[in-house]
Amino acid sequence: MSSGIVSVYVTFANAENAARVGRQMVEERLAACVNVLGPTLSIYRWQGKVEEANEVAALFKTTAGCAEILAKRLGEVYGYENPAVAVWPIEHAPAPYVQWVRAQVR
Questions:
Q1: What are the tens digits of pLDDT across the range 73-99?
Q2: Backbone angles phi, psi at 26, to 5 degrees
Q3: A Pfam family in this protein (predicted)?
Q4: What does DSSP assign to residue 45?
Q5: Contacts by 88-95 with C-beta closer than 8 Å and gap 24+?
Q6: CA–CA separation, 102 vs 50, rounded Å?
Q7: What is the pTM of this model?
Q8: C-alpha torsion angle, residues 58, 61, 64, 65 (rounded to 10)
Q9: How far apart, in whole angstroms, are the C-alpha atoms of residue 72 and residue 76?
Q10: pLDDT tens digits, one per residue of 28-50
Q11: Would you tell me how many other CB atoms lie within 10 Å of the CB of residue 15?
Q12: How far, in Å, CA of 33 to CA of 59, rounded?
């Protein structure tokens, strides 16, 4: 049974950008919370070449119903040509946490 909330995983070029976008999404009530995680090394294929980049990952907490709106908005303010935005369903979470997330997003 799904909790109705999701985590949205996003990578950013740096912590400042992640924090700026994260704060904006919380202020716009598209996310209840964002965790800006530590640096990560990303290895990926882009335009036929294997690339490496130092990035910062972030986890946005929102409702399943708001995830698509959040993903679209992230694409508008993100800064990458092809933003990595992955939605992960949260199957189980404590009821008070689920209620809090739902109360924070529109």
A1: 998 887 677 778 899 999 999 999 999
A2: -70, -45
A3: CutA1
A4: E
A5: 88/6, 88/7, 88/8, 88/9, 89/2, 89/3, 89/6, 89/64, 90/2, 90/3, 90/5, 90/6, 90/7, 91/1, 91/2, 91/3, 92/3, 93/3, 93/5
A6: 40
A7: 0.90
A8: -100
A9: 7
A10: 999 999 999 989 999 999 999 99
A11: 16
A12: 8
The total number of residues written for the chain in this structure? 106
- pLDDT tens for 12-22 read 999 999 999 99
> Residue 7 is encoded by which pair of tokens?
């985590």
Strands 33-46 and 85-90: unpaired
